[in-house]
Design a protein that fits this description.
heterodimer, A: mainly alpha, 18 helices, B: mainly alpha, 3 helices, globular
């Protein structure tokens, strides 16, 4: 049965669409300069300016947030806090209520993302739940937005090692994204599932997930394809399937080169060095890892350089060259101290140096310290527990 | 839609097409007017802020179907 279409409703849609578009254009010219010219501690007061209480402002703040998140999460956090204030203060009669709920939920979601980047995952989970509730209570038609919020919640739950909840949410979100034809986010759900399985050390299952993702290659963007080959490479190293690892790491490097992603190229190159060490070729591993480590240092990526260095320490210990291993381990202590990295990481490196000096360190101790330092990214307060399994008698 | 400004007449034609799409979908799903009309309106408003790369018809259909599914009949 064909319903009558109310011309007034069509006019309202058009008017709202035009309003959103013109606000976006205006905000693109005003919001960034305003933030630059306002001291950060005064940003919260900007939410009170009537001309900034628009969806266009929120759209521009969201762009600034995205541009900033990876490089300056503190600034991104301040931007997200401002966006939350603006979204909470939107005049009730300015937009249809569904749009107000929609932008409000996204503002809270961005705040949660900032907290995740700052390692404040417990708070992030609370914020994501709040964003989810806004959508759940008020807007049944915002299923896609809800999936975006829940995907972010799944990421934080993963950081908190609440893996089962995270997996369940990822499956739910993936199915929603597929329904909406959102291939990019659906692929991200699958990729995140693989990462989660890798963190659980279920490398074979992780690799299967990644391979299934690659099977959808035509719809995958180059970034995701590169990251997927990279992840398959690392899973294959852990599974001792070195030919497969080598092929995938080379493939990832080729794609990263096309994308011009220098740091990711280095990370994948480091994977090739790791592969050689795991395959029982420590000399080749050292030869590959040395230049990579130097480039990380050049980029002032001290933690990555340190992780590379620990691979080399392990290789020296495998080769029965404890003095080189000790010298490098002490260099790493110095670099981490100079860079002001987590003191727990420095303690662990110091312990490794002493164990090598005392001729007591097995190669696996270097790997144990390496994994501990990686775990500090998710749990900066975790204590280092030296394992005697990695010491010689 | 927001990234490509249209004139009034084009906008009206586009929104008429979108509403027709959703009303046809409502008929296919057997959804009564009292439910379909407000949901269709919400879904079109929500779609205004969708990512530009998403196909609008797919977005509208999925959002409408999901909203109907969640509606307490």
């Amino acid at each position: 049965m064909r319903r009558t279409i109310d011309p007034e409703l069509l006019r309202e849609f058009s008017s709202t669409g035009r309003k959103l578009l013109s606000e976006r254009t205006a905000a693109a010219q005003t919001v960034r300069p305003l933030l630059i010219n306002t001291p950060r501690e005064s940003w919260p007061t900007l939410a009170e300016y009537p001309h900034l209480q628009t969806c266009g402002t929120l759209d521009e703040l969201s762009r600034i947030f995205t541009d900033t998140l990876a490089t300056d999460p503190q600034k991104a956090h301040a931007v997200a806090e401002l966006a939350v204030s603006v979204s909470e203060g939107l005049p009730e009669d300015a937009y249809p209520s569904i749009i107000r709920w929609q932008v409000r939920a996204h503002a809270w979601k961005d705040l949660g993302k900032a907290l995740r980047y700052l390692g404040r995952n417990e708070e992030a989970v609370t914020i994501f739940h709040h964003a989810d509730e806004i959508l759940d209570k008020n807007a049944r038609s915002l299923g896609h937005d809800r999936a975006i919020v829940r995907f972010n919640l799944a990421m934080s739950l993963q950081e908190l090692e609440r893996f089962n909840e995270s997996l369940r949410l990822l499956a739910e979100c993936k199915s929603t994204f597929i329904e909406f034809g959102d291939d990019r986010n659906a692929a991200l759900c699958v990729f995140s599932e693989g990462v989660l399985l890798q963190r659980l050390r279920r490398f074979r299952e992780a690799r299967e997930v990644y391979l299934r993702l690659l099977a959808t290659a035509p719809v995958l963007d180059m970034d995701t394809r590169a990251a997927t080959h990279h992840a398959i490479g690392f899973s294959s190293i852990e599974l001792g399937e070195f030919t497969d690892a080598e092929q995938n790491l080379r493939h990832a490097i080729g794609l990263y080169q096309q994308l011009g992603q220098a740091i990711d190229i280095l990370k994948a190159e480091a994977g090739r060095g790791r592969l050689e060490i795991r395959a029982g070729n420590p000399q080749i591993g050292i030869r590959l890892l040395g230049p990579v480590r130097r480039k990380f240092l050049k980029h002032t990526l001290y933690e990555e350089a340190g992780l590379c260095g620990l691979e080399i320490v392990e290789a020296y210990l495998m080769l029965g060259q404890p003095s080189q291993a000790e010298t490098l381990a002490r260099t790493l202590v110095g670099e981490f101290t100079l860079a002001g990295l987590n003191t727990r990481a420095i303690t662990a490196l110091g312990y490794l140096s002493e164990a090598i000096a005392a001729q007591k360190a097995k190669p696996a101790l270097a790997n144990h310290v390496r994994e501990y330092i990686i775990s500090l990214r998710y749990h900066p307060e975790r204590e280092f527990t030296p394992s005697y399994l990695f010491l010689t008698e | 839609m927001l990234s490509t400004p249209m004139n009034d007449s084009d906008l009206t034609v586009e929104f008429r097409r979108q509403l027709t799409l959703l009303y046809d979908l409502a008929d296919q799903l057997g959804v009564p007017d009292s439910i379909a009309v407000p949901i269709a309106e919400e879904v079109i408003y929500a779609s205004l802020l969708r990512r530009a790369s998403l196909d609008v018809d797919r977005y509208l259909s999925a959002a409408f179907t999901a909203a109907v599914r969640e509606h307490p009949l």
